[in-house]
Model the fold of this input.
Amino acid sequence: MRVLYAGDPEEKALWEGALRAADPQMDLIMEPGQADPASVEALLYAPSGPLRDVAPYRNLRFIQSLWAGVERILGEGRLPAGVPLARMVEPGLERGMVEYMLGHGLRIHLETERFREAQARELWAPQAPPLASGRPVGVLGLGELGAAVARALAGVGFPVSGWSRSPKPGIGAEIRALSGPEGLEEILKSSEILMVLLPLTPETRGLLNARTLALLPRGAQIVNAARGPILEEEALLAALESGALGGATLDVFAVEPLPPGHPFWRHPRILVTPHVASATRPETAAQVVAAQMRRLARGERPLHLVDRGRGY
Ligand SMILES: NC(=O)c1ccc[n+]([C@@H]2O[C@H](COP(=O)([O-])OP(=O)(O)OC[C@H]3O[C@@H](n4cnc5c(N)ncnc54)[C@H](OP(=O)(O)O)[C@@H]3O)[C@@H](O)[C@H]2O)c1
Done:
């Protein structure tokens, strides 16, 4: 089966080495134009890649997104709707997100900002933060990334609640699994730190707005590593201004790169990271791609297929 890499040109060499190491037999083409499009059966695709016109690739059987989030791919409408599309689910991506969320969760929990401000005033203010067991954390989205993050947080001792579209009875006793509109209200009311790991879909766009943010406990903090438009920027700024929210750690934004002069850049209660929470790591992801190709070759369904109706 012929596979075409149509990802970021800057990552081409890394991917080529990793894919050839994962499966030396793979019939791999590293650039559109190096082979007859009609001979390509599987596409490794990212919107940052070079492929614009997919029409000549008329014999595609499978598209593997190189990114976890697929809202841009679905929004572009460039790829044939009838060809199965899989999200990227791979251990390196998961590990990176766990480290980001755990690291920033602990930074917020340890109230480092309060001590930094006291230090600036040469103020000795010996009020220790509570233990993690006294700091309820909520995770919106209990998918591949959210579930791993929720488990890691519970492992440190935080009381963790998670929220998903469908109920998750099997997630484990250490996580309070919630779903539905009542579940959302419950998780928001009880989370001192709220972590967002939802996909961007018509249902999740603007989910965190003036009304829902007002449900959070006073002084709560948000960490958004999902997609910018899930959190309404004006509502966040107003909630920080009024003191209803204590701070926000933002990795994703409505417009990326974050435009010059945007109020988030210099906001004393916002930490901006430039969409680096986690990334697909070719060295581990190539193993996943090779396994997907083996499944296809055996006539099995690839894993992690996108439900285009749901949008993730
Ligand atoms: N910042 C970064 O560097 C970075 C890196 C990677 C990924 N991401 C973002 O992280 C997102 C999550 O990735 P993932 O691999 O964990 O996705 P996933 O496995 O598809 O999980 C999505 C989770 O969100 C839940 N969900 C979806 N729509 C919902 C709704 N309307 N109401 C309640 N819950 C809903 C799903 O519920 P069900 O379980 O019921 O389906 C599922 O638990 C990606 O879509 C991407 O945007 C960001």
About this structure: Residues 68-69, 89, 93, 97, 141-146, 163-166, 197-201, 203-204, 225-227, 251-252, 275, 277-278, 312 surround NAP (CB under 6 Å). The chain has two domains: 2-90+280-297, 92-272.
